[in-house]
Amino acid sequence: MEKIKSIKIWVDNGFEPFMKEFREYDENGKETLKENYFSAQEPEGKTITKYNETGLVTEETNFGEDGNITDKTLISRDSEGNATEVIIEFADGSKTIKSFHRENNGKTVTVHEQSDEGEFEGMEKVTMDDNGNVIETLTLSENKEIIDQHLFEFDKNQNIKKEIIFHNYQKISETNYEYNENNNLVKRVMVNTSGETIDWALFRYDEKGNLTEQQFGDHTLYKMNYNENKKVIREQKVNAMGIVEYSKEYKYNEQGELIEENNITEKITYEYTYY
After folding, report:
1. pTM of the predicted model, to two decimals?
2. pLDDT of 124
3. 210 inside domain
4. Which of 1, 11, 24, 236 could in theory staple to 223 by disulfide, Cβ–Cβ 3.0 to 4.6 A?
5. Are 201 and 216 in contact (CB under 8 A)?
6. Cβ within 8 Å of residue 22, ≥6 positions away
7. pLDDT, tens digit, for every residue of 204-256?
8. Which residues span the domain enclosing 63?
9. Is residue 74 within 8 Å of residue 52, measured between CB atoms?
């Protein structure tokens, strides 16, 4: 398969068609440039991303609609590719500095955030299990007191099965996840401290394992149809009244790349160049 060099995304909404987005990629498939536009004459902004020799991000620069830099992120990494320091430079010259401290063979990471003047801006501690799954995140005060705590449990297939959220040591919510025999997520239920359901979602699949329906509470249903290559060719959003809020159709080229999206208000086309 040919390697993508660039993508132009065009929008035709019945007025003057214009390029909404432009993306460039290096020969390793990494996005190096992304430009966004409000209209044909109105740039929205752009992002330039740089990578090291192993393909990890080392620098990201964002530009506003006036072409000036809004912020720049510089990432320092160790020999294993782990971030050791992140410096975010803002347009006014101020900086936020994030330092990473690893313990327990890299399974515990503490991120300390401060300004370039040494003012405390935040602290987070992340703990992972032997499989690399995040099992706990802590948001800490300057005195290392726990503000927020998220706990995660995983099943034998490494699927998340439970998430519990605490704030100021008080339990806020618990979310449980269920899967079918193919390890596809089929149900997600969030309950409050009284055990009352406050959010839920159901996921349905066809015999090929394609996700065909996503039901979010009693208010939103998404329906998807697929082609023989397991690509979505039609998507609908249905509200609680059973009314279709939007319907999209998708077309692909021989390589399976998206080339066109159609709905009642606009057509979006994708134009590729290759190395």
Report:
1. 0.89
2. 98
3. no
4. 236
5. yes
6. 6, 7, 8, 9, 33, 34, 35
7. 999 999 999 999 999 999 999 999 999 999 999 999 999 999 999 999 999 99
8. 4-183+252-274
9. no
